[in-house]
Amino acid sequence: MTESRTLLHVRAAGRQLLLPVIDLREVVAFTQVTSLPGGPRGIEGVVLHQGEFLPVLDWAAMTGGPEPLPPASVMAVLRRRLGLPLERLIGTLEVSEAGWREAPEGDPWHSILAGLCTVGEQEVPLLDPERLLALLHRLRKDR
Q1: Measuring CA to CA, how many Å separate 17 from each of 53, 125, 128, 133?
Q2: Superfamily of domain 4-141
């Protein structure tokens, strides 16, 4: 029997992306981020979420590009307490893990991806929250 996963299909940092629903706490309306002077690389700042400060990912630090990113309208909150700014929600998918393939080495996000999934006629990358958090931890240590 083939395992399947429920994924949230989103648009973030100018590209389509899949997020494992199991790794999400919730998706909320995006609110203004308060920057942290001298804050850790990879973190845009914080928002007040359910009475606590929630760090918000800086997609520009992940993409390495200086170009401005499209504005976020919603935010996915990971179970591990990190906000991911999203341009929009596209939908949810139930996908068999049998059809996955490795993300190409040349993809600037390769280190935070779990693979590629065919959605319709295109391949959409799956974000790996554990790899993302490990990268943020390394960036903080490298300061």
Answers
A1: 25, 5, 11, 17
A2: CheA-289, Domain 4 (2.40.50.180)
